[in-house]
C-alpha cells in the first residue's frame, strides 16, 4: 500500500502507485506538486530508490524509515485441494466476476459456509458492507470470494488467502500474475491484533504452489520509472501548434512525441483516446473535452459508455443535463440473473459518472442529489441479490434465521428515497420498490430517440 499524507490529510493510497500504468500520474503530480512543508509516504520498499531520485531533482530531502510486517505470513506446504477443506476466515481469490459467483455457489453448495464477495465493479459501498459482514465474527458470512479488489482500501480480517488461479485476464490476454501482484494479494492474510494474526497463503491447485513460494521469497524488483501525464495547460499550449486538429489527434501526437527523462513514462491513455474520439464529434471546447476524458467512465462497458455519450451529447446541445432526460422512470428491481446484476452494476457506474460530472460542470448537471440516491438504491438492490443468492437452501435458511438472523422473515419492506438517504443498512432486506429508476434498455433507447 502506498499512502501519501500531507498535513494529516490522507491523499492517496495504492501500492507502488507511482509506477502504476494508468494511475501513476496523479501520484507523481501530487508528489512533485503539493505545496506542503512535509510529506509522509507509506508503501512498498520497491519504490524507495525511485522516490529518492525524483526528489533529489527537486532538491527535497528524503528520510527513509523501514518497518517490518508485524504479523507473520506463511506460505502453506499443501494446496487446498478441495473446497471441503475451506474454513472460517478464508479468502478465495480469482479474477473474473463469473468465476467469483461460480466459486461462491460451489462453496455454499457444501452447506457449511456462506460467502461475501468483493470485486471491482461492485459499488464501493456494497464492497465495504460485504467486507464488514465477512469481518464480523458473529455474522454468518465467514468466507470471502474476491478479486484483487481486496487491495483497494478495505480493512479485512483474513486468515488465509487461497489463490484459485495465478492467471489473470488483463483486457488483452490471460497472463501470469507478477511477483508484486502475488505478494500484494497474499499480504492481505493475517492482521496484527485481529482474530487472525498469523496469515497463511495457499492455492487451490498443486501446480501453483511453487510459484507462490518463490514469489513470497523474492523481493519486489525496484521501480524504475514514475508515471506522468500532461495537465490541461500543457495540452492547451500544445494544441495551439495544431489549431485544426481534433483533441484525439492532439493527445495522440503529444504522447508520441513527448521526450521524457529516464525516470518517467507517459501513463496509458487508451481509455482517454476512446472518449476523445467520442467528444471530438461534438461542439465542445478543449477544456470540456479534457474533463470528459478524465471522467470515471468505463468504455469497455456498453451501458457506461452509452451514458457518457448521452451526457456529453446533451451537454453540448444545451449545457444543461437533467438526469430524467436519460433515465426512464420505471421500476428498478432486484436482479434475477447474472446478466441483470451486471446491468445494475453498469447503471450504478452511469449514476456515479453523473455525480462526478456534476462536481466539475457547476450548474450543468443539476440532479446530483437524485443521482446519489439512485446510486444508493442500486447498491441496495445489488446487495439484496447477493443475499438471495446465498439463501437458496432451505436447510441453511432455517438454521440461520433461528440463530444469528433475527430480522429474517420480517416480511416485505418498501424502500423510499428517505430510507435510503438516511440509513442505507436499515432498509437492507426485501427491497421491492424504488422511487424512480431505469432499465439499461430504456437508457439506450431514449438516447437513440433523442439523438
Ligand atoms: C506462467 O507461469 C507458469 C508456471 O509458473 C510457467 O510455466 C509459464 O511459462 C508462465 N508463462 C509465461 C508466459 O510467463
Ligand atoms: C478484526 O478482528 C478484530 C478482532 O476480532 C476486531 O476487533 C476488528 O474489529 C476486526 N476488524 C475489522 C475491520 O472488522
Provide the residue-averaged pLDDT.
81
Q: Evaluate the radius of gyration.
A: 24 Å
Please trace the helix and strand order, writing H or E for each element. EEHEHEEHEHEEEEHEHEHHEHHHHHHHH
Main beta sheet strand tally, sense and closure: 6 strands, parallel
Strand content: 5-15%
Bound molecules: 2-acetamido-2-deoxy-beta-D-glucopyranose
Quaternary state reads: single chain
Strand order of the largest sheet: 4-11-8-5-7-6
What structural class do the secondary elements suggest? alpha/beta
- Tell me the helix content: 40-55%
How many DSSP helices?
Answer: 16
Number of strands: 13
> What is the 3D form?
globular
Biased composition (Basic and acidic residues): 423-432
Signal peptide: 1-19
Region (Disordered): 400-451
Domain Helicase C-terminal: 62-236
Topology:
Elements lengths: L2 E4 L2 E5 L10 H10 L5 E4 L5 H10 L15 E3 L14 E4 L3 H13 L4 E5 L5 H12 L5 E6 L13 E4 L3 E3 L4 E3 L2 H8 L12 E5 L5 H9 L8 E3 L3 H8 L7 H11 L6 E3 L3 H10 L6 H9 L7 H17 L19 H23 L7 H22 L4 H9 L14 H6 L17 H11 L1
This protein binds 2-acetamido-2-deoxy-beta-D-glucopyranose (NAG) (2 copies).
